[in-house]
Amino acid sequence: EEVEQRYRDRNAESWALLERASAVMPGGNTRSSLWSDPFPLYFVSGEGCRLKDADGHSYVDLLGEFTAGIFGHSSAVLKDAVSAAHANGINLSSHNTYEVRLAELLTARFPSMDLLRFCNSGTEANLMAVALAKIATSRERVVVFEKGYHGGLLTFGAASAKVNAPHKFEILPYDDVDAARALFAAKGAEIACVLVEPMQGAGGCRVGSRAFLAALRDLTAESGAVLIFDEVQTARMGEGGLQKRLGIIPDLTTIGKFFGGGLGFGCFGGRRGLMERLDPRRPDAISHAGTFNNNTLTMAAGIAAAEHYLTAEKLDALFDRGEALRSRLEALFADRKAPYTVTGLGSIMNIHGAAADHGDSARLLKLAHFALAERGYYFASRGLIALSLAVGDTEIDGFLNAMAAFLDESAAVFSSVDRSA
Ligand code: PLP
């Protein structure tokens, strides 16, 4: 409570903005995932890896727009690309040269993508991929995983499914090969597709084992179901996404976030035989339309992003930087015997409170989130860190020092935490 009061006093402008917003949006919110208790911060500007909030505080941005902001803020390269596209006229009512170039760049990098289609968000990409799989297989059942997140309309809570989309879902525990085998043994012939994140992002950065993902590949291949990798987050793990790193090639892949160069973007692509169902020249073509699917601003930003930032060298270096940060955090928590853990892969990771009681774990995380914000380091209140290319060694050392100072200061609090689970 004392910490919450400190937070309110420090962030009065953010609180005032939330009050204004609450008059016109439910809970003052238009993105449920941004809600945090007691209230979210409002940022007014960003440059490189730095953010400024409405009360004038400055932060190192360790959240990077939930992985979408991989470039750092206010990139001149992206600004020039968008400005040039704008100067050439937007809303052209036709196909355009940008979409051809971006499609060439993306199909060249993802092993699973012979053909692709653009849309406006990762959510939409997943909805279209599932629809395509159902039509192509003439089957109904869609396999997803507990704590999976495939967008605002495809969210799967732990025990009880929190589902907003009209599909016949089978919700399995994640990373459980036996459960997947059992379902396919019982209902394999009815399964249209398996939709899976190779690492669960919003689910807490839980990394799927290679054995699990390979089993899904085998089970879907044997039963004639479509394997869909949701690489909306994990596509940053290397030039060809996590699929290339793992050497497991799905039938369809969905991407989004950073491949739109900072603008709203989604894309699904895969095997020629499947994707050709969308060819308008076919008598049985599946329609997939969208006014902004090929909007020139996003297409141009996406090309600049792919060519200048999302190169094999830069993505590999970012992966390594993330691995190093995660192991240094692990070592720090172990050294201080602090009740925290960290999970993840490459540049995406999640800090968790590690108490026996779920409520205590949540309070520990909240404490760390506030304390690091006070020290000028911003990550998601749910513990997510997604490094951008703009975060350097200085910021990472500074963050670890700030974390160490917080852990030392809180040693007395931690000593009373029950960790016996
Ligand atoms: N899939 C995954 C794995 C995601 O993390 C997200 C967004 O966080 C989505 C899909 C949805 O993408 P969008 O927010 O662009 O709809």
Automatic annotation (TrEMBL):
InterPro entries: Aminotrans_3, PyrdxlP-dep_Trfase, PyrdxlP-dep_Trfase_major, PyrdxlP-dep_Trfase_small. Pfam families: Aminotran_3. GO terms for molecular function: transaminase activity. Transmembrane segments: none annotated. Its cofactor is pyridoxal 5'-phosphate. Keywords: Aminotransferase, Pyridoxal phosphate, Transferase. Belongs to the class-III pyridoxal-phosphate-dependent aminotransferase family. PANTHER family: GLUTAMATE-1-SEMIALDEHYDE 2,1-AMINOMUTASE, GLUTAMATE-1-SEMIALDEHYDE 2,1-AMINOMUTASE 1, CHLOROPLASTIC-RELATED. This is Aminotransferase class III-fold pyridoxal phosphate-dependent enzyme. It comes from Jiella mangrovi. The lineage of its organism: Bacteria, Pseudomonadati, Pseudomonadota, Alphaproteobacteria, Hyphomicrobiales.
